[in-house]
Amino acid sequence: MKQRSLRAGLKASLLAACLPLFAAAQTPAAPAPPNAANAPAPAPALPPYLSPEIHPDDTVTLRLRAPNAQKVDLVLEGAVTPMRQDADGLWTATTPVLAPEIYGYRFVVDGQPMLDPRNTDVRDNLLTLWSNLTVPGTPPEAWELQSLPHGMVEHHFYTSQVVLGLPNNQSDYYVYTPPGYNPKSRQSYPVLYLLHGYSDAADGWPSVGKANFILDSLIASGKAKPMIVVMPLGYGNMAVLQPGRTPELSAQSVDLYQKALLSEVMPQIEAAYHVSKKREDRAIAGLSMGGHESLFIGLTHPELFAWIGTFSAGFNPKTISELPPATAQKANLRLLWMACGVDDALLKPNQTVIATLKAEGLPVTAIETPGHHQWPVWRDNLIHFAPLLFQK
Prior knowledge:
The chain has 392 residues and is α/β, with parallel strands linked by helices. 28% of the residues lie in helices and 24% in strands. The strands form 3 sheets. It has an 8-stranded mixed sheet with strand order 11-12-14-13-15-16-17-18, sandwiched between helices. Strands 3, 4, 7, 8, 9 and 10 form a 6-stranded antiparallel sheet that branches. Strands 1-2-6-5 form a 4-stranded antiparallel sheet, with no helix packed on it. β17 (335-341), α8 (347-359) and β18 (364-369) form a beta-alpha-beta unit. The longest helix has 26 residues, at 247-272.
């Protein structure tokens, strides 16, 4: 799964880099060889410890045993907190009260990042690894696993003739079908193409974004229409993941990705699933890089998409200068929903694009939320965007 060859190699490299840090940080310095006649008694075993520890007040304590370290910081969703060391070499930090959410964190030990070795819940993508910290909600949040009807998520591989740099030309996508979907029925469903961001694999939305749990919850509560959600790999050239990518390479990747989505993924979806082929029943949305792709594909192909959403879209001066020409009449959109966190470095570029589109007469729904460039923002965006889709 998850681009096995490429992803397995990247993960192995990351883990190989981290493992020496785990060992060096946590192994006490070796004592001088004892005199055989006066050998001291073995040092008592250090007590085990828990990390992360979620307290009843929703503060969380993170711990790391690293007796040889000079400095350890906790990085939690971008916020840096110095940790304190006790006499046994155990470093500790306790967070403020945390809202219910899935947080990414890791430690920085003497300048080197490392995972929490006591936490097996690890978030991975094609470039980095983070430890996950989940603070549950009461009642459960939409992204949590709940006791309600669940849809299915299927993983498909296919041979791409378009995307460059894939292992053996194998690309992939995930498909969410809602509760009650019957492959033998003739009932058709609207479809949302949901695109991930830079560095994510195709499983970014189901694995980290919890898109399937969010749709389950929204559909069960009657807030969202039952829909099929397609979550494809979002690159046209895998070389964009390597160091030294240029604006030209990024632009080529977007162009090729648009071709792969429209000529390879969509025909497979429409052949294998009961999806409506009406533009009024087709939406495209994405986060960061995927938001850029969604806007450009949606505006370039108004005959295919009537609903567009962008979450912290990855715009820069070059992409802003290349916005597809569009008018309200040509686009004929049912919804153009553009959201960004107020602390995101991409807020100003998004505001620029929104102002440009509004000047062309497009009916943009502009949303600004708390947060920066992070999954808590994008999960919240999907929770608020999906109920707007396919409404009459």
